[in-house]
Amino acid sequence: MWSGPRNISTAMMRAWENRPDCEVVDEPFYAAYLAATGLDHPMRTDILAAQSNDYNTVIEQLTGANVASELQYQKHMTHHIPRGMDMQWCKPLRHCFLIRDPAEVIASYVQKMPGVDEDAIGITRQAELFDEITDICEQAPAVIDSNDVLRNPEGVLAVLSEQLGLPFTARHMLQWPAGRRDSDGAWAPHWYHNVEQSTGFGPYRPSQPALQGAHADLAQAMQAPYQHMWQRRIQA
Predict the structure, then answer these.
(1) How many C-beta neighbours within 10 Å does residue 94 have?
(2) pLDDT tier at 70 (50, 70, 90 boundaries)?
(3) pLDDT-based confidence at 95, cuts 50/70/90?
(4) C-beta separation of 43 from 91 below 8 A
(5) 105-109, 114-118, 130-134: which has the highest mean pLDDT?
(6) Are 183 and 24 in contact (CB under 8 A)?
(7) Element (H, E) at 76
(8) In angstroms, how far apart are the furthest CA atoms of the chain?
(9) Starting from the edge strand earliest in sequence, which strands make up the sheet with 71-77, in order?
(10) Do 123 and 222 contact (CB within 8 A), yes or no?
């Protein structure tokens, strides 16, 4: 699942982890991304200590004999993947892109981080990876929009599961116990407060953030890559 920050990506991970046949991996490239960029993110030291700092090692962990479960859900942040990275490791996997309106992403992101730019929210990189993975896998990945999921989680997840050739059961994927998980990344104390309180997908609330200045300009600039994926989204 290829997402960006401040989407419903962790709630989506909860839905898949609550399946009895699925294990999840939470943002496995985060430490490698921080090590490569030198960025000072919240809980940086803990993240670097918790995961491999080497991209190739992480790829082996995601694709090699270390994958013990028959069904593994990988939650990825698109901005963690550097441009020029060989994405052939993706070919045997099934892919889905989780998108959200750029204005909503930006409005949420600035509540947790002091600054925001194009690279930080990963929407341009998400569209690039969508095209790269389409070429590598010789078919377009599924796309789901967070607002569509919140409007109709059962319908969207049922269609997605069908496209992936997997059974869908509402009792597993639409509700889960509250609390933290052992599978949550080291960054959970900073980012996951809301999802830790959740027991299912939140209600859909129409939102039109009143962005100003550079934030509004960034949201407008991100519309083209967002629409590139949005027009291909699952509708249920």
Answers:
(1) 14
(2) confident
(3) very high
(4) no
(5) 130-134
(6) yes
(7) strand 71-77
(8) 49
(9) 22-26, 71-77, 2-3, 96-99, 142-145
(10) yes
Residue in the structure block whose two tokens are 């600039």: 221
Q: What is the pTM of this model?
A: 0.95
Identity at 85, one-letter amino acid code: M
- Going by pLDDT thresholds of 50, 70 and 90, the confidence category of residue 206 is confident
Quote the tokens at residue 157: 């997840």
Lowest mean pLDDT segment, chosen from 6-20, 58-72, 182-196: 58-72
The pLDDT confidence band at residue 230, using thresholds 50, 70 and 90, is: very high
CA dist 162 and 197 (Å) reads 29
Whether the predicted pLDDT of 208 surpasses 90: no
- Residue 216: partners with Cβ closer than 8 Å, 6 or more residues away: 103
Q: Cβ neighbours of residue 9 under 8 Å, at least 6 residues apart?
A: 1, 3, 75, 77, 98
Closest Cα to residue 39, out of 5, 84, 88? 5
CATH of domain 2-230: 3.40.50
Consecutive H or E run containing 98: strand 96-99
End-to-end CA distance of the chain: 19
Please check whether residue 150 is in contact with residue 174, taking contact to mean a CB–CB distance below 8 angstroms. no
Phi, psi of 12 (to 5 degrees): -65, -40
Q: What is the DSSP string of 173-233?
A: HS----S--TTS-TTHHHH-HHHHH-SSPPPP--------HHHHHHHHHTHHHHHHHHTT-
pLDDT confidence tier of residue 207, bands split at 50, 70 and 90: confident
Put residue 179 in one of left, alpha, beta given phi > 0 → left and psi -120 to 50 → alpha: left
